[in-house]
Model the fold of this input.
Amino acid sequence: MRNKAVLALAALAIFVAGPIHAQTGAGLGYSNDQPIQIKSDRLEGDDSRGLVTFLGNVMATQGPISIYAEKLIIVYTPKGREIDRVEAEQGVRIVQGDRVATGQKAVFYNREGKVVLTGSPRVNDGADFVEGEEITVFLNEEKSIVKGGGSSRVNAIFHPQGKKP
Done:
């Protein structure tokens, strides 16, 4: 299960550059062959439900990428122990250099190869940013969708190359 968890967390972290990568052409500089370290106040495993839950001050780090949240849940299939999804909840912050994604929840759907960030999601790359009601990144397609909702609209600022304040 360890390798599958590493890949799932790596895919969750890759979305940090998704919406901005399409605009700026910046490389990810990321490799998922590095070890992952997860620290939390508590770990709960429930094999009958296919869950591993890290609780309290969670910090998951792999190479240059760190994920912070109050709760990180890995949901796996009981038979093959393959990752179904990874959920980061409560004060989610994903950091890779100058790139920072925030929200209240981030969910990586393994089979669909997508990440959905909700709860006032925002992705910053230095002075550039995009925010909306929901940010979805399709990892296999290098495609992202930022949705507004209700009275909230999509908001983004992209500075010309070499002109960032």
Q: What stands out?
A: Residues 1-31 have pLDDT under 50 and may be disordered. The chain has two helices and twelve strands. Residues 2-157 form a domain with the lipopolysaccharide transport protein A fold fold (CATH 2.60.450.10). Residues 2-14 form the longest helix (13 residues).
